[in-house]
UniProtKB/TrEMBL annotation:
<dbReference type="GO" id="GO:0009423">
    <property type="term" value="P:chorismate biosynthetic process"/>
</dbReference>
<feature type="binding site">
    <location>
        <position position="25"/>
    </location>
    <ligand>
        <name>3-phosphoshikimate</name>
    </ligand>
</feature>
<feature type="binding site">
    <location>
        <position position="339"/>
    </location>
    <ligand>
        <name>phosphoenolpyruvate</name>
    </ligand>
</feature>
<dbReference type="InterPro" id="IPR036968">
    <property type="entry name" value="Enolpyruvate_Tfrase_sf"/>
</dbReference>
<keyword id="KW-0808">Transferase</keyword>
<keyword id="KW-0028">Amino-acid biosynthesis</keyword>
<comment type="similarity">
    <text>Belongs to the EPSP synthase family.</text>
</comment>
<feature type="binding site">
    <location>
        <position position="29"/>
    </location>
    <ligand>
        <name>3-phosphoshikimate</name>
    </ligand>
</feature>
<feature type="binding site">
    <location>
        <position position="193"/>
    </location>
    <ligand>
        <name>3-phosphoshikimate</name>
    </ligand>
</feature>
<dbReference type="InterPro" id="IPR006264">
    <property type="entry name" value="EPSP_synthase"/>
</dbReference>
<dbReference type="InterPro" id="IPR013792">
    <property type="entry name" value="RNA3'P_cycl/enolpyr_Trfase_a/b"/>
</dbReference>
<feature type="binding site">
    <location>
        <position position="405"/>
    </location>
    <ligand>
        <name>phosphoenolpyruvate</name>
    </ligand>
</feature>
<feature type="binding site">
    <location>
        <position position="24"/>
    </location>
    <ligand>
        <name>phosphoenolpyruvate</name>
    </ligand>
</feature>
<feature type="domain" description="Enolpyruvate transferase">
    <location>
        <begin position="12"/>
        <end position="412"/>
    </location>
</feature>
<dbReference type="GO" id="GO:0008652">
    <property type="term" value="P:amino acid biosynthetic process"/>
</dbReference>
<keyword id="KW-0057">Aromatic amino acid biosynthesis</keyword>
<feature type="binding site">
    <location>
        <position position="380"/>
    </location>
    <ligand>
        <name>phosphoenolpyruvate</name>
    </ligand>
</feature>
Length: 422
């Protein structure tokens, strides 16, 4: 039975320091690069959650050895890639888009499947691109099969990556191991989540790979060795946003230690968003501290580059004053669930006034009432419900456990934050 979680109400201003586990996006890139590298890698402070455990299992099933090191670190020893193997993608975009190119480098038959909702997520572009680069793949969405021969010619491919930046990232991450590397050209409406592509490029370069990004809408990865990694994974800044939001909506103060002064994580954009909504935002040696105002202001903002922050921003907007407009996020219809429809339905279910537009949401902040908040198997829908519940008595979040996709113990962390306040 799905767990019903009465979201705790804040009895006053939330005041806490909240350390966050590692970044999902960095951890899963690091695992892929380490599995393809020229020697054993050490990943310290990786995220250990459903998405990253699925990535580790997928790479293990293809031959890599991934073992526990001290303090939750991971040691990765690459090996010749081979099937047969069965890859469970769960609902992880990074697994379903980053692992097929790795599988195309293996010998044997590798079958992929995932959660029911994962079968609806856009994927055909990656599989078509891999076919164009020489791979033998049957299917165009989950479930599908890769028939690997142990090598991939690679070369030039043009794709429409407007549905997901992960199409580009997935091809680039394995490309040093393609015989001719890869040149990926994008043709179509704008690519979302640009910082995530910059993260991919930066991590490849850090591993000694040559990447040319000098032409607009084009990425060139030269073939060559991937240097083994010895990395400290940054905390997950997108997962930090519900905790920072707790300070913002209650007029409290929350510090996230270890906030990097420079990062490719899109979650860093929360600093500007919260400042625009009237919060005081300070980044110093203690970390990032957000102090909420008496009343949050509405915001008009293009979130295309940082779409995964939308559920948090929508919750903030619903608790602000006046009308907020969130745009540039049509691609969220292909995320864990159709996030625009889900946010519209759930906020309106609490008495809100929210309307979907072609590429976003218009949110009028009105008094909300308690009620059921459905998660749609979406970790960020669940955490958005928790934010609202701080200020709206009687919000009951269905399936809070779905947060384990990217946070091992969200309910425990949320309760600890509120207990520290008391
Ligand atoms: O590469 C990544 O790690 C991610 C890219 C983004 O995907 P989209 O470009 O599909 O939005 C983001 O939303 C997702 O949470 C993680
Ligand atoms: C879109 C997201 O995840 P995924 O990596 O599964 O695409 C997300 O975490 O908001």
């Amino acid at each position: 039975m799905t767990q019903l979680w009465p979201a705790p109400v804040a009895t006053g201003a939330v005041r806490a320091t909240v350390p966050l586990p590692g970044s999902k996006s960095i951890t899963n890139r690091a695992l892929v690069l380490a599995a393809l590298a020229d020697g054993p890698s050490e990943l310290r402070a990786p995220l250990r959650s459903r998405d990253t455990e699925l990535m580790a299992s997928a790479l293990r099933s293809l031959g890599a050895t991934i073992t526990d090191g001290p303090d939750g670190s991971w040691r990765v020893i690459p090996a010749d890639l081979r099937g047969p193997a069965e890859v469970d993608c769960g609902l992880a975009g990074t697994v379903m888009r980053f692992v097929p190119p790795v599988a195309a480098l293996a010998v044997g038959r590798i079958s992929f499947d995932g959660d029911p909702q994962a079968r609806k997520r856009p994927l055909g572009t990656v599989l078509d691109a891999l076919r164009a680069l020489g791979a033998d793949i049957t299917g165009s969405s989950l479930p599908f099969e890769v028939h690997g021969t142990g090598a991939l010619p690679g070369g030039v491919v043009t794709i429409d990556a407007s549905a997901s930046s992960q199409f580009v990232s997935g091809l680039l991450l394995s490309a040093p191991r393609f015989e001719q590397g890869v040149t990926v050209r994008h043709s179509g409406p704008p690519v979302p989540s640009q910082p995530h592509i910059e993260m991919t490029v930066e991590m490849l370069r850090d591993a000694g790979v040559t990447v040319d990004t000098s032409r607009r809408h084009q990425w060139r990865v030269e073939p060559g060795p991937i240097r083994a990694l010895d990395s400290d994974i940054e905390p997950d800044l997108s997962n930090a946003t519900p905790f920072l939001a707790a300070a913002a909506v209650t007029g409290g103060s929350v510090t996230v230690p270890g906030w990097p002064s420079r990062t490719t994580q899109p979650g860093d954009a929360i600093r500007e968003i919260l400042a625009r909504m009237g919060a005081d935002v300070r980044l110093d040696s203690d970390g990032l501290t957000v102090t909420g105002p008496d009343q949050l202001e509405p915001v008009e903002i293009d979130l295309r580059a940082v779409g995964e922050l939308t559920p948090t921003v929508a919750a903030l907007a619903a608790l602000a004053s006046g009308r907020s407009r969130l745009r540039g996020i049509a691609h969220l219809r292909g995320h864990e669930t159709d996030r625009l429809a889900a946010l519209e339905a759930e906020l309106n279910g609490l008495g809100g006034q929210v309307q979907q537009t072609e590429d976003g949401l218009v949110i009028d902040a009105v008094p909300l009432t308690g009620g059921a908040w459905h998660s749609y198997a979406d970790h960020r829908m669940a955490t958005a419900g928790a934010i609202l519940g701080l200020e709206v008595p009687g919000v009951v979040v269905e399936d809070i456990a779905t947060t384990s996709k990217t946070i091992p113990d969200f309910p425990g962390m949320w309760t600890a934050m509120l207990e520290e306040t008391a």
